[in-house]
Amino acid sequence: MSGTPEKQPGRLVPWRWPIDPDVLELSLACVPDWVPSEYREFFDSYNSFDFEYGEWLYPEIPPGVPLSIQSILSSVREEAEAFGDDPDAWFPVAFIGDDEYVVYHRNDDGSVEFGRYRFWDRQYLDGPYPSMAEWMRTYGVEL
């Protein structure tokens, strides 16, 4: 792990109203099978995670809108490919800015790691962690 920078506490944001299961299914249809179930299960109770400097990608944003899961996934795939990485080995959960995201990454051995990654530097700025839940703990939040 490249270290854990000082962080302001994060906050889990519950749904204000129930999400239509069809909308949730459509929004999460692009999630690769290798992404751990913790990600999909997150949306059983929560809409997003508020944390310093980042914009959580939540399923209420329709595909095609710039901060939708699908649009940011497309951007991450382009970034990965541009820097010589396998575009199918990355999945974003939050957008930080420029070429920086909070992502799941599938390693060559099939293991999955999680953290804040900058493609330009080809390194984690926070992480990698073994899971999204472990990363959230560094913000003082238990998932």
UniProtKB/TrEMBL annotation:
Protein's organism: Corynebacterium lehmanniae
Taxonomy of the source species: Bacteria, Bacillati, Actinomycetota, Actinomycetes, Mycobacteriales
Domain of life: Bacteria
UniProt-recorded name of the protein: SMI1/KNR4 family protein
InterPro entries: Knr4/Smi1-like_sf
